[in-house]
Amino acid sequence: MPYGSRLAAMMTRRIGRECVYTPSARLALYLALRRWCRPGGRVLMSPVNDDVILFVVLAAGLRPVQAPVSQWDGNIDPAAVPESTWRNVDAVLTTNLYGLPDRVVQLGRRCDQLGIPLIEDAAHAIGTHVDGQPIGTFGKAAAFSLSKHVAAMAGGFLAVEDARTRRELELLRDDLLTPRRLRDDLATTLRPLARSTVRTLHLVRPVWRTMQRLGLLERDAFRMALHAPRLAGSARHAPSLAAYEPWVRVDLHGFRSRHGALVRGQLELRMTLLEGDLARRRAGVSLLSGTTWSTPALRDRLTHDGPPSLFRVPLLVNDRDALADRLVDHGIVTGYIYDPPLDDYAGAEFAEPSPAPEAARWFASHTLPADPLTARRIAAALTKEGATPAHPPLSAHLPAADPTTTPPTPLGH
Q: In terms of CB atoms within 10 Å, which of 39, 50, 323, 356 comes out highest?
């Protein structure tokens, strides 16, 4: 029986596609890029994305091409991508940022016209649908993350169209897995419990501040250190996951460790609780979407489809960096801030710059990702801190705004 087949079957039943179990979404994404993209190819992607994803693309021997994005959700704006760019890309990688869906119908149509694969990064988007169809079923393949939705801090899937492709990818995955170690399995199992205990005992602030002072955090800023000379040297070995492992492993050192029965059993249990988790997320999204900091893209989606089960709710605020630091004093650590955009962060040596970078820069610098599972605490803290909503400058370089209504007032006002 293939490794992780019981977990894969659970996900297959959920989305209706053949699934490969992987220790992480980043390994799943690497498998997809290796399967559908030839080394040297160019991949269109959003610059508002985790830096780990940039390094996964580089590890696959590919050139990341940064796309213009919507100023309201940070996802690719297909209409703003120049024709010259469309003619020179070999694949499109979505983000579904924070769970807000990419424009997958338009992107899929364009990919079909060009004869190139659409690969969905659905790490934030378990439970997200477009026109009733699950995200992760629009492209050739989709990478999912369990750690984003069931607090497991491990586990992922690669969803594909047919059983034959699944079997091919299982063999490729097995070649990339590192041997299981009991110590790592115990750490993977206990880590979520430790994090939950810290939150329950209201120790987030002292623990976080102590880790900052002791230099125990892998990132000194929102982005990890680039180490450009060493990164450039790794290109000689691409495609090679091992050559890029110092970057790809950040925040998840066991991203390709073979999980034993202990970890997989815990993940199976957590997956049975997924529907309850998604319902709680929808409730939190509903609350936060009614605040003055909510992005119009979310309010528009709420009007048409009801509250989505987002991984994070993108709130648009002024003085975001200072505000995020002050929220630690309220016991709220804000993660998943993708600033600066990848082309500004990595430079032209490692990523082709966006032809229209202004929207990405604005969105990345004003977005405060809020956990919908703690929506009331976050809304109360932002109100107490006097957080003010951010509005993009009027500029011909920014894509047109989505239709919106007048923003509601903050919670409690």
A: 50
